[in-house]
Design goal:
By secondary structure, this protein is mostly beta strands. The chain has one domain: Exo-inulinase, domain 1 (Jelly Rolls). The chain is built from one helix and 15 strands; from the N terminus they run αβββββββββββββββ. The strands form three sheets. Strands 1, 3, 4, 6, 9, 12, 13 and 15 form an eight-stranded antiparallel sheet that branches. It has a five-stranded antiparallel sheet with strand order 2-5-14-7-8, with no helix packed on it. It is globular, with a radius of gyration of 21 Å. The structure holds magnesium ion. Magnesium ion is lined by residues 120-122, 132-133, 229, 231.
């Protein structure tokens, strides 16, 4: 074995701080192999990476429920699910913590309403922290409530909206808040790409999303569901998956 590994790296180098491995260590485990997914088009959803947990594949809504535990009442057709207004928010049955999330959405092609009333929905990490979904293509509203805003806290760095009716994507890197007992040790940190454009880069959230109030942390579990909002508009979703983030193997 030693002979096989010889040539892959070095053993006369210093040990890396915080690690059992040396610089260029030939014995350091190889990264896991993951088959990357495929990109979506307007016509068709792409495929998730091979190690992703698929929350919605365009057909099966059994992984979702309403707040009271009842089965999904949103419409599923043509490879997407659509908010049925007044049925309420939906939660993934899966609960998870730090992760990479991919989700695609489309605001109604037929424009109606303005400001917060146009194509409003939301993606709530751990069921508590909203990345705003809204049709802000030529639709101004308050900045911290615009498309891809961390609602009530941070406007997106830019407005990367596509036209209503077109599919849009959020790619989110999520690190949940960390508590030691009742004490907040580290706030939630979030990075968001909207249609491939960075709109938040390591933003530190001030607490769970609030409306017209300041956010405030309270101790919470280390995992939670993904929640999608019924804000009264028939917004569509497709191709929803996540990959748990487990960090580096320091040995
Ligand atoms: Mg919303």
């Amino acid at each position: 074995m030693a002979a096989e590994k010889k040539g892959l790296g070095y053993d006369d180098t210093p040990v890396l701080p915080g690690s059992v491995y040396k610089v260029h260590d030939g014995n350091r485990p190889q990264p896991r192999v993951v088959a990357p997914g495929t990109a979506s088009t307007q016509q068709q959803a792409g495929r998730a990476p091979s190690d992703a947990v698929v929350l919605f594949d365009g057909v099966d809504g059994s992984g979702w429920e309403h707040k009271d535990g009842s089965a999904l009442k949103w419409k599923i057709e043509n490879g997407y699910m659509e908010v049925v207004p007044k049925t309420g928010n939906i939660s993934s049955k899966k609960q998870f913590g730090d992760c990479q999330i991919h989700i695609e959405w489309a605001a109604p092609a037929e424009v109606s309403g303005s400001s917060q009333g146009r194509g409003n929905s939301g993606v709530f990490l751990m069921g508590l922290y909203e990345v705003q979904v809204l049709d802000c293509y030529d639709n101004p509203t308050y900045a911290d409530g615009t498309t891809a805003a961390l609602y009530g806290q941070y406007p997106p760095l830019v407005n990367a909206c596509r036209k209503p009716g077109e599919w849009q994507a959020y790619d989110i890197l999520w690190v949940g808040p960390k508590f030691n007992g009742d004490t907040l040790v580290c706030p939630a940190v979030i990075t968001v790409l909207h249609n491939g454009v960075v709109v938040h880069h390591g933003a530190q959230l001030q607490g769970p999303t609030q409306h017209k109030r300041l956010a405030e942390y309270k101790p919470q579990p280390a995992t939670g569901p993904l929640v999608l909002q019924d804000h009264g508009n028939p917004v569509r979703f497709r191709n929803i998956w996540y990959r748990p983030l487990t960090g580096y193997d320091a040995g």
